[in-house]
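Support request, please re-run this one:
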Amino acid sequence: MKKRLLALSFVICQLSFSLSALAERREVHILSANDMHANIQVFPALAHIADSLRALYPGLLVFSAGDNRTGEPLNDMYEIPAYPMVALMNQVGFSATTLGNHEFDSGPRGLARLINLSNFSYLCANCYPADSLRLHLLPTKSFDVDGIRVGVVGAVQLGTHGLPDTHPDNCRGIHFSPVNETVAKYERLRQQNDVVILLSHNGYEADVESSALFPWIDIIIGGHTHTQISGGETHNGILITQNVNRLKRVTHITVILDRDSVGAPWHIVRKKADLIDVQHHTGRNVAVEDMVRFFCSNPAFERPLTQVEQPFTSYEELGCMMTDAFVAETGADVAIQNYGGVRYSEHPAGPFTVSDVLRLDPFNNETVMMELSGEELQQMLLSVSRNDASDFPFVSGILCQVERDAIDTLRIKKLTLLDTRGRKLNLKQRYRVVTSSYVASIADAPRRDQGQFINRKTADIIISHLEKQPSINYQGVRRIR
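Re-run finished. Output below.
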């Protein structure tokens, strides 16, 4: 009897060992970036990070959640606008990107040219370009990582007019559909893949909302709002990642999968995300460093225009400087600059260069002059605030008293316009108002005068104005109360 029990025990142990031998474990590793905004100077460090991870994990996937371009003159003003970023992303070995709103900044033809120069895929399910534009976009793509199928669907945010946040002319010939309505059509990715990723340029809050709607997604790699998430957050069982802009940090995502036996389905047993500091990374890829040095060899961008006496410390201080330049150069009574059009909030004391202007105002906007009544001006400011999806615009020539809702602080209950002496503006009087072509395009409040181009770029106007100033000081300047 004892011999039979021992024999049975031996068989069970052998069977258990055999079954465990059939069980498998695999890992998928992803390096993700978002809102790089053409910060080409840190690419030698990014390339070294990618090289180091790829040495450990040969199947490494590298994804971008959009807004790869716009923000660095050396990239945006290149002979082929934004080509340096594409060349560097090719060298790093990106697998795919979704479209950010700024991918459209050079219009459909400019975007088509960049896509054709890219060795990686552009994934955007809710973007439908006309065939004549020859935009080679894919809604989804699957990647094979050591036998693991990774399915990715891409999507770009839409503003209040149903377009990404760029000048409407940049999207001519392109139709867009709502993000969640579109993503819902791709649930089949769950049956076709072991890991499903939404590559999203929709913003943090929208990504959290999506996590509740799409339980079949495993990971959302997000962008657009520059939200710094500490590694990753889990919402409704879905891992969400996002970092601040300009490649200060990237995320290393690890997905661990098991299956019981050969041929059995894979199951995700763990998802985790770790931050990697790019800004202070000491390693360098020498080949990429040489490429960056070549792209940066344009001394014209470093020409000083004026001296900053005291540091700029806020978006409003820089917005006031920009609008003052618009007024001074055009003779307008009032100038308007949308909040989202001021691209950084700080600048140290010292030289203010051509490059500083082009990073501050990188959109190549035309200058528009119009004549508005005080009432039309008031309604225009409200509509820009509503449609810019950032905050209240900056002004010159007037002061604004803004009363906000106590709960929804972005909703404006009351707007009072004052002249520069603090007296209420005459709403019946007409004023010459100067702004950018982007602001004119998103301001949907009724007005008789739609505006005229004056054949000057807004950045050129700022450069021209600053060249005439021995020094500037905007510390503490506030016009929105």
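Residues 10-21 have pLDDT under 50 and may be disordered. DSSP finds 14 helices and 24 strands in the chain.
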